[in-house]
User: What shape does this take?
Amino acid sequence: MNIRQFREDFDRGSFKLTVINGVLHCDLAEVMRRVGLIPKPEHVRQVDEETAVAILERWLWKNAAYEGERMPREKAASYAREFVSNHLAKRDRADGALVYANVDEEPFNNDGTVTFRPCLEDSNMDGGLLIFHERGDYAACLWFADED
Assistant: This one.
């Protein structure tokens, strides 16, 4: 992902992108702390790749507080697919790469909005993805915060 282009395209809202490449040897709570989230593993759940892309697309496309468009949906979908695919592919998927998000069991409402769990930053609304390779040598996090 071209970060400079991404920053230009994502001009409404704040986000945090953190990548840890190296020996982590720690649990999910510690990885959350290291990427700048409140370390509460009970507030995230594992999601599959398709759901991860859909969640990330939603954060990129629309503001969580007021549903205002941040970027065209097609561009949001492209960034979402690229981020998830690239960071899962950093290691062999068989090594235990897991994707976490702070969403409910059924993350999408009938109107397409997302139901998020408690915040993991100091904001009114936040969410995103944390990709953590269980072998302990790689983590990537793209997290968004919105204020009401």
